[in-house]
Amino acid sequence: MTDGLKIGLAGVGTVGSGLLRLLKARKDTLTARAGRPIEIVAVSAQNRLKNRDADISGLRFVPDPVALAKDPDIDVFVELIGGERGVAKQAVEAALSSGKHVVTANKALLAHHGPSLAALAEKNGVALNFEAAVAGGIPVVKVIRESLQGNDISRVYGILNGTCNYILTLMEQEGRSFADVLKEAQAQGYAEADPTFDIGGFDTAHKLALLTSLAFGTRASFESVYVEGIETITPADIEAAGDLGYRIKLLGVALRTESGIEQRVHPTMVPKDTAIAEVDGVQNCVAIDGDFVGDVMLIGPGAGGGPTASAVTSDLIDIARGLILPPFGTKAKNLKPYKKAQMRAHEGGYYIRLSVYDRTGAFAAIAGRMAEQRISIESIVQRRPRAELPGFKRRHEGTPAAVVMITHQTTEAAIRKALAGIERDGNVDAKPQMIRIEKL
Ligand code: HSE
């Protein structure tokens, strides 16, 4: 029997505990599949004695993760600490510099420092694997890095955050407000106590930056991602979207255009009869449009101890088998600079909801602002005022009514100018709502 692959595990939370359980439960099968045993020989955690789903009492404990990363008795450093800087970054750099392979679930670290860490891994001839960093249990990193290498990819997009998808699903199914459902998601442990990263779209943006690098062979550029979260979505939007044949999902989209690559995260209208519209609750989904393969879609669990441990294990098996690939599919020095497409050049259809004073000429003024920008309207509906909907206060000029429009293809620049004009004209009593429609 060849020597075992010796692992130092830093971070024993939900995912770390899942990994300990998986490696124990599948010990013999994994040895057979990898050709050698895979064993955790030392761990590092903030609290050694914390109650957890896995027993670490028999393992060597190293309080300092950076010391564990350099430990002469380990071959692989598994980083499940999280965070773009601080100890996670120091430990990963220490491990790579000491010639240890690294497996990590840390999307923030890689979205910010991916190219330099990949270069460090390649310089030291070691792996930097991160299947668990994007969409949890969905094996999308390997699919793009290995299985789809024969393709030119034109777009990669998906539902990359389970918390947001859970909130939007419940808002639709139960007609409840964003704040109400968020509270429940926090109580159930889906959303963090500080949910800003999830609901603000930043977690999705980290994952998207990694998918963009893998799909287009460019240096990861998190700073260039256009980000909008789901905080402004109301039950009125979800109901109107449903009436028009759409669902609202938080999508991350990376798209090759003539002027560069668009990277955007925002609430998006998707037609109800598409597969992505059916992805409900905490599930994730990633779609890849390739030229030879066509459109590929992967759906599955995007978080949680079991699915994420499954992804970490696949990375460990690759290392045990001796499969060491450039982290982003292309050697770090050959990754192209990321060329950003300007968001104002984005083209697509738009959903607009306005809260319009019910008075003569209001509609004509709105239509005029749209026409000025050469925006063609596909459909327009004035919905009866409903006192119970937020933002529908009685005013001396009459009760505002919700006007919902769907536009034909136009540009982001045009729609923003039109909406600014509509706000200036004073016929609306709240900031217009605008949701992009994705062509699927
Ligand atoms: N918080 C993420 C989600 C999982 O809700 O999908 C980890 O990235």
Q: How is this fold's topology laid out?
A:
Elements: E1 5-10, H1 14-25, H2 27-34, E2 38-44, E3 60-61, H3 65-69, E4 76-79, H4 87-97, E5 101-104, H5 107-123, E6 128-129, H6 140-147, E7 153-159, H7 162-174, H8 178-187, H9 196-199, H10 202-216, E8 226-227, H11 235-243, E9 246-257, E10 260-271, E11 283-290, E12 294-301, H12 305-321, E13 347-356, H13 362-372, E14 377-383, E15 401-407, E16 410-411, H14 412-425, E17 433-437
Residues 161-163, 198, 203, 302-303 line the site of L-homoserine.
What does this structure look like?
The radius of gyration is 24 Å and the shape is elongated. The protein has helices at 14-25, 27-34, 65-69, 87-97, 107-123, 140-147, 162-174, 178-187, 196-199, 202-216, 235-243, 305-321, 362-372, 412-425, and strands at 5-10, 38-44, 60-61, 76-79, 101-104, 128-129, 153-159, 226-227, 246-257, 260-271, 283-290, 294-301, 347-356, 377-383, 401-407, 410-411, 433-437. The chain has 14 helices and 17 strands. The longest helix is centred in the N-terminal third of the chain and has 17 residues, at 107-123. The protein has 3 domains: 5-133, Rossmann fold (3-Layer(aba) Sandwich), CATH 3.40.50.720; 140-301, Dihydrodipicolinate Reductase, domain 2 (2-Layer Sandwich); 346-437, Alpha-Beta Plaits (2-Layer Sandwich), CATH 3.30.70. α1 (14-25) crosses α12 and α5 packs parallel to α10 (202-216). Strands 7, 8, 9, 10, 11, 12, 13, 14, 15, 16 and 17 form an 11-stranded mixed beta sheet that branches. Strands 3-2-1-4-5-6 form a 6-stranded parallel beta sheet, sandwiched between helices. By secondary structure, the protein is an alpha/beta fold. Bound molecules: L-homoserine. L-homoserine (HSE) binds at residues 161-163, 198, 203, 302-303.
